[in-house]
Amino acid sequence: MKKTLQIILKVIAAIVGLVIIYVILALTIPYIPVQKKATNDVADIPVYIYTNGVHTDIVMPIRTDQMDWSEKIPFQNTLSKSTDFNYVGIGWGDKGFYLDTPTWAQLKVSTAFYAAFWLGDSAMHTTFYKTMTEGDDCKKIMLTKPQYEELIKFVDSKFDKNQDGQNILIQTDAVYSKDDAFYEAQGSYSFLYTCNTWTNNALKAAGQKAALWTPTDFGIFQHYK
Questions:
Q1: Phi, psi for residue 111 in degrees, rounded to 5
Q2: Residues 48-67 pLDDT 10s
Q3: Rounded distance, CA 181 to CA 40, Å?
């Protein structure tokens, strides 16, 4: 009995130790910056980094010479079916969190466990906007055409595609508004690769300022103060 108790205590101590190490790394590594890549091209494409306080999205113009996102993410897949939008926000995350946890009060232990340890599926969350306003929760960056092309490639590659090369809509009532929709995505969420890690990597792909690694929105936004 005593030996069993010792094993249990050691396991608990190991878990607590790993959590402490993770928290320390999550608070320190984001301070290591990835610098914006130098370019002589004209930066005239507005892109926004948006957070709801926990989760971050990349918000892009719906139409440019390089991409019409409404062809990839049809307006009719939203409840409003409106077409008078100018921007689309796209974020990647755990499917269980997105669809089964509309508020933190409804978070289940099983959902958190599956998300943390690569056991769940992922999803893309897309939201249409008419306007974007800069503030503490929304930062505007200007991209060149080559930078935006890299961002397009990064974001589009994370959508699961059907045999016709189209994004796969998730049929669900668990939308957050009349102007959003969910799609199947590539990859698995974990405590090492979160929704904010994805956004941070999107910024890296576009040659923008970013953290070396971050699981939080703070790790991104501190580089845009």
A1: -65, -45
A2: 999 988 889 999 999 999 99
A3: 37
